Amino acid sequence: MKVGHMASDQRKHPNKRTSTQLLASKVIHATTELLEENGPQAVTIRAVAARAQVAPMSVYNHFGDKQGLLHAVVEERFAIMTRALRDISEYDPLARLRKAGTIVHELMQANPRCYQFMWTTQPGPEARNAFTQLIEIVRYGQAAGAVIDVDARSLANAIWACVQGAFSVEFLHGAAESTSSDRVTQVNYDALLDLIERGVRTSDDHST
Fold first, then answer.
1. Radius of gyration of the chain (CA)
2. How does pLDDT run across 64-102, given as a tens digit for each residue?
3. How far apart are CA 58 and CA 64, in angstroms?
4. Buried (b) or exposed (e) across 182-201, using 16+ Cβ within 10 A?
5. Distance from chain centroid for Cα 82
6. Mean pLDDT in consecutive groups of 10 residues from the start of the chain, 208 residues
7. C-alpha angle with apex 198: 193 to 201, nearest 5 degrees?
8. Cβ density class 140-158: b for 16+ within 10 Å, e for less
9. Please, which residues have CB within 8 angstroms of residue 76's CB and are 6 or more apart in sequence?
10. Which one, of 84, 108, 95, lies nearest residue 197 by Cα?
């Protein structure tokens, strides 16, 4: 990607940095819209440039190619997730974990094609940051004695897989002709969060 090579030059020229950031923001927004509307096949340098109302060469100079554009969108979406998870303020450990599940599901519902694509790509720095936030939430629960004392990364990975799987079902069966039983309704998703909570809590009584 071309963006990293411009960092030192941008520090020397603040106005150039501002214009570069604005261009990048417009291009990433345009790429997100195209990806959300018609999937990754709709993302091309020319299509993005037309949507962002910038020159195709500007897109190429900053992002390199289609993969650079898609990578930028994925990183931005995961960065948004990371910030949202980091900002969770619930004191109760299990309430904090549940809030994390709710936040991730809401983000996925807002941009389903983007998140479906995100799960199929090689994790980048922001994906790892988002996952690290989930690990920290698990560790918070373990420190409070509310979450079972197993490897925090493994437990976070299991929770991550549950949420991702539920979203994949929701996305794949989200067509208009699908019956309501095929979809992950809010009621069903709440039941999934209940199941996760019962699975990770330290209480011997899992019936509540």
1. 20
2. 999 999 999 999 999 999 999 999 999 999 999 999 999
3. 9
4. ebbeeeebeebbeebbeebb
5. 8
6. 47 57 93 94 95 94 94 95 96 96 90 87 91 97 96 96 83 52 64 93 60
7. 115
8. bbbeeebbeeeebeebbee
9. 28, 32, 126
10. 95
Produce one character per residue of 49-84: b if its CB has 16 or more CB atoms within 10 Å, e if not: bebbebeeebbeebbbebebbbbbbbbbbbbbbbeb
What's the one-letter identity of residue 163? V
In sequence order, the 6+-apart residues with CB closer than 8 A to the CB of 197 are 94, 97, 98
Strand, coil or helix: 201: strand
Helices (H), 87-124: 93-110, 112-118
Contact by Cβ (8 Å): 159, 193: no
